[in-house]
Specification:
Order of helices and strands of chain A: HHHHHHHHHHHHH
Largest sheet of chain B: 6 strands, mixed
Oligomer: heterodimer
Number of domains of chain A: 2
Mean pLDDT of chain A: 84
Number of strands of chain A: 0
Number of helices of chain A: 13
Strand content of chain A: under 5%
């Protein structure tokens, strides 16, 4: 075939030092980069793979397991994890709390960021920096005041109370990030929208947010992940087992005398899946990145 | 459809900069008014105030009979084409064009029909499903126009809509803009820094300088009777040559440096005010096209200059020359020129003058060349105020 015999146009006539094709067609210069990349990936993915492997090991041989691929894989751990300890309940609780946190935070942060980005009002910058300063306060320091506040509001042991606290802790960073993105959107879009008959809310909902989807996707992923994994606040605010979120529920697998490692790792794997799904969904927006190219 | 009226409109920005000063302007229904001026002259501020995108500091703006000073942009029924087009990137061409109609809650089938009609007028029917990023500059420009005309607005504002196009496409789209404006027939205010666009498009042209209206008239009147040195230097390409000159006490001649030019009785009759300038200095303006290579006929006088540069444009020669007469630099000389403007080297003499002559004449750099002129084609200005000397 003509295509098969066509000479490689991109190949230099004389290979330059360090750039010539090497093992598996990878250029020598890229080979060292590849090794570093693989090593770094192993550091990140290693524990995850180990967790995945252990979740399929029969409970008896867990701690002695030295091979990554189990010799007698079993799904018994998953069945046990899902059916015992009200794990499915924790899963649903976490899902409700995380999704609600994402939605409420993004809605309120968008409104606030839009005001900071586009309007002039007294003490605007001061208020903004106060928001930012709250990022410097460690969350654990706020635990007791928050507990007392929730107690006064009769929101202890309530998922709604938990959502409120998560929204409060995520708002400053989200406002900060969205403000920067909103400010980068050319004003002509907004002015054109207004001339076309749109009001302020329409400008935000139909113009600013759609044009900021990459930023909204990033913050949504961060917020979801933070709410999904959060442990100390949930442990402090929630008392009854029916309101446990996943991280608190997972701790339940660790008994006083024994630890059911198999179901524990299986539950951990299940707990990881939604975060990965959310990441994959938002990845689409990172890559497509709605272009602002219609402005010259 | 409505007229637009500005009465004493002033705009002072929070930093104290006065962009527009006491502007009076009336754009009749169906009229194509072009506001032209150099960068920073306040022309875009005028447009934005009419659109409602900027508050006005003083004065009144009317659309039809309604004072719109405090009316929100969306309630003014004014469409605008932005310099950057501002097409919404998340929407298709059809959605872009139909957006204003959706905001008016028009039935879907009617929106579709009007979008198709507007697209047909502008020749963009094949691109309705594309996103703006998939279009070229000229196509985007058409979509921006489509978005404005589909609304059938009371008035139409355009902010340098052709400035992002290359020279060839700009000429093509200029004709397109004129055609569309004629078809929709609403009051149109078009802002540009390009005097060629202004001259070719506008029924009337308003020349703005430092926020002050210099002259508002038909393109031909601006060209023939500029009201002051600024307009004289701004309108016309290449710009009018402006010299310091002396009028003899008996009005018989004009001294341009060491050269004397006989003033005809016609010139005095056309500018009776010159009688006040006997024995005094004036600024004389000579259009490049009024300097000729051939002699005889109606040309009664001659100006001799040293040729510094010859630009052969095919249909004509632009001859840059210098004389010992002092050249007056109009404040408009920094204007951004149109595509037909000749370019001089940065080291060009401040005494640079330009003549536009017929091709075929043997003109060479360094020559002492005699240009024939007819003094009754000259324009005269007061050297202190810069105002045209007429009556």
């Amino acid at each position: 075939m003509a295509l098969a015999t066509r000479p490689d146009q991109t190949k230099p006539a004389i290979p330059m030092k360090g750039t010539g094709p090497g093992l598996f067609g990878i250029r020598r210069r890229n080979r060292s980069r590849l090794v570093i990349a693989v090593l770094l990936s192993l550091v990140s993915l290693g524990p995850l793979l180990y967790m995945l492997s252990l979740s399929f090991q029969p409970n008896g041989g867990l701690l002695g397991a030295t091979v990554l691929i189990p010799t007698h894989p079993t799904v018994q751990n998953y069945v046990q994890a899902w059916t015992e300890n009200s794990f499915s309940r924790y899963f649903v609780n976490s899902l409700i709390v995380s999704v609600a946190t994402v939605v409420i935070t993004v809605v309120f942060a968008s409104l606030a960021a839009f005001a900071f980005a586009r309007y002039k009002f007294p003490l605007k910058e001061l208020i903004f920096y106060v928001f930012l300063a709250s990022l410097a306060v460690p969350n654990l320091l706020l635990l007791i005041p928050q507990f007392l506040l929730m107690d006064r509001l009769h929101l202890l042991d309530s998922l709604f109370g938990l959502v409120l606290l998560y929204v409060a802790s995520n708002l400053p960073f989200t406002i900060f990030l969205l403000r920067g993105f909103f400010e980068a959107i050319p004003r002509e879009y907004e002015e054109s929208f207004r001339l076309d008959g749109a009001g302020t809310l329409r400008v935000l909902v139909s113009l600013i947010v759609p044009l900021s989807l990459p930023a909204v996707a990033v913050v949504s992923m961060f917020i979801f992940s933070a709410a999904w994994d959060e442990f100390p606040v949930a442990l402090t605010m929630i008392n009854s087992g029916s309101h446990y979120t996943l991280p608190v529920g997972l701790a339940d697998f660790i008994g006083v005398h024994t630890v059911a490692w198999g179901p524990f790792f299986a539950a951990s794997v299940i707990a990881t899946v939604p975060v990965i799904v959310v990441f994959l969904i938002s990845l689409r927006w990172f890559r497509s990145g709605v272009s602002l190219g219609a402005i010259r | 459809m409505a007229s637009i009226t500005l009465e004493g409109v002033t705009k002072v920005y929070p930093n104290g900069f006065e962009a527009v000063h006491g502007l009076d302007l009336h754009i009749s229904d169906g009229e194509f008014m072009v506001v032209v001026g150099p960068s920073g002259c306040g022309k875009t501020s005028v447009l934005r105030m009419i659109a409602g995108l900027e508050d006005i500091t003083a004065g009144t703006i009317r659309v039809g009979d309604q004072v719109v000073n405090d009316v929100a942009p969306r309630d003014r029924d004014i469409a605008m084409v932005f310099q950057s087009y501002a097409l919404y990137p998340q929407m298709t061409v059809a959605q872009n064009i139909g957006f204003a109609l959706r905001m008016k809650k028009m039935p879907k089938h009617e929106i579709e029909q009007r979008v198709k009609e507007a697209a047909a007028v502008l020749g963009i029917s094949d691109w309705l499903d594309r996103k703006p990023t998939q279009l070229s500059g000229g196509q985007r420009q058409r979509v921006a126009m489509g978005r404005a005309i589909v609304r059938e607005p009371s008035a139409f504002l355009m902010d340098e809509p052709l400035s992002n196009l290359d020279a060839k496409l700009r000429v093509q789209m200029r004709a397109e803009v004129a055609r569309v404006q004629k078809r929709i027939g609403v009051a149109t205010l078009y802002v540009t820094h390009d005097q060629i666009e202004a001259m070719t498009l506008g029924h009337r042209v308003a020349v703005l300088r430092d926020g002050v209206l210099q002259q508002c008239d038909t393109p031909q009147a601006l060209y023939d009777h500029p009201t002051n040195v600024f307009v004289a230097g701004f309108i016309g390409s290449p710009a009018m040559n402006l010299f310091e000159a002396g009028i003899s006490a008996e009005f018989g001649s004009l001294s341009l440096g060491s050269q004397r030019i006989a003033l005809s009785s016609d010139a005095i009759r056309r500018h009776p005010g010159l009688r006040r300038y006997g024995g005094k200095e004036v600024v004389v303006g000579i259009r490049p096209e009024d300097l000729h290579a051939s002699s005889g006929g109606s040309f009664t006088s001659v100006i001799t200059g040293e040729v510094e540069l010859v630009e052969a444009l095919g249909a004509e020669l632009l001859v840059h020359f210098s004389t010992d007469a002092r050249v007056v630099q109009s404040a408009s000389s920094e204007r951004t020129s149109g595509e037909e403007e000749p370019r001089m080297p940065a080291s060009g003499s401040t005494a640079d003058c330009v003549a536009r002559i017929e091709p075929g004449h043997p003109v060479r750099t360094g020559d002492q060349f005699k240009f024939s002129v007819s003094p009754d084609r000259f324009e005269f200005f007061d050297p202190t105020s810069g105002v045209a000397i007429l009556d």
